[in-house]
Every structure is written in C-alpha cells, then in structure tokens.
Amino acid sequence: MTMSSPLILLISAPSGxxxxxxxxxxxxxxxxxRRVITCTTRPPRAGEVKGVDYHFLSADDFAQxxxxxxxxxxxxxxxxxxxxxxxxxxxxxNTGQDVLLIIDVQGAASVRKAAKSxxxxxxxxxxxxxxxxxxxELERRLRGRGSDSAESLQxxxxxxxxxxxxWREFDYLVVSGSREDDLRRLRSIxxxxxxxxxxxxxxxx
Length: 205
Prior knowledge:
alpha/beta; Rossmann fold; globular
C-alpha cells in the first residue's frame, strides 16, 4: 500500500499574470488539493463571496491577528492587507489534504522564510512562479482588467515588473501561454511532486 504525505503547492506571479485562474482550474480537477482561503482588508469585488474567495476582515481585526502571530504570511499591497492563516494550512495538512496557496510574491517570500524554521512546512512546500512571456504582455493584461484607476494601474505595472524579476526564488518557472498550456504544466508539476520518493510511505507486501 502506498501513502503520500501531503504537500503545499504555492503558486505566485506578478499581479495580473493569471495565477488565480490557473490555480482554480487545477482545483476543479484535483480532489485531494484544497485551497486555503486568505484574509484581506479590501472590500469584496463583484461576484466575490465571503469565506469562499476571501475572508474579508476589518483593518483592526487584521492587525489584531498579526499581533497574535496567527498568519503564516501577510503583506500590505496597494494599501490593502492580505494574509494566510497558519491554522488553515496546518489543519489541511493534518488531515492528509494537499494545500494550494495562491499568493503574491511578497507572501511567497514570507512562506519560504517560515519553512526554514519549520520541518513540516519545509518538507511539504513546493513553489511555482507563473510569468507572462514579456513585460509588454503583462502590461496588456493589467490594462485589460479595466478595474483600476490610472494611478493604481501605473503602480501595479511598476510593481509587477519588480516581481517578475524574482522568478529565480521559486522551485519551478511556468512561462504563461494559453490557459490550457498553463494548466497542463501546473498539473505535471503537481503530479510529479506527489510521486517524489521522500513523500512516500510504501509497503511492498
């Protein structure tokens, strides 16, 4: 009988590169993989549901959780705070569920730092950077969203350029193509990582 220890699949990308789209597509076809819902102080966007897309918190509530060291990672991006609760990650790992984290580049750095001092996290963590094929394409995607003011859009473009340069910090690089290509590559990474020898408890009997 073979049992595979759970893993944390972390997907990060510059803003607008499509990490949420490909991550959600992988979730739909992979029953063992569950997303940890992150917390944010920004208001819900059209169609977003509390407790499904995000845990929407007040700034005071978020700050209190930071003070109590409840977050595995947290960051302030464009004047809004985001964070992943440690309890959400550990609860899923303890039940044998693989964890999907879809977070920004700052958050990914915090998770890697936390994993250095935590053997459970270190053994489970797999990081993937999804990059647009060019800066021009990244800017086109950001402008195509149409949800930001001109000032906010310019900040996102400048920040995304800095984030794109940090791809070497990750275990895997996926240069974005079509949605189908991105999903296929991400699926291959996930499946290969679940089969790693050091994740197996194999009894040949």
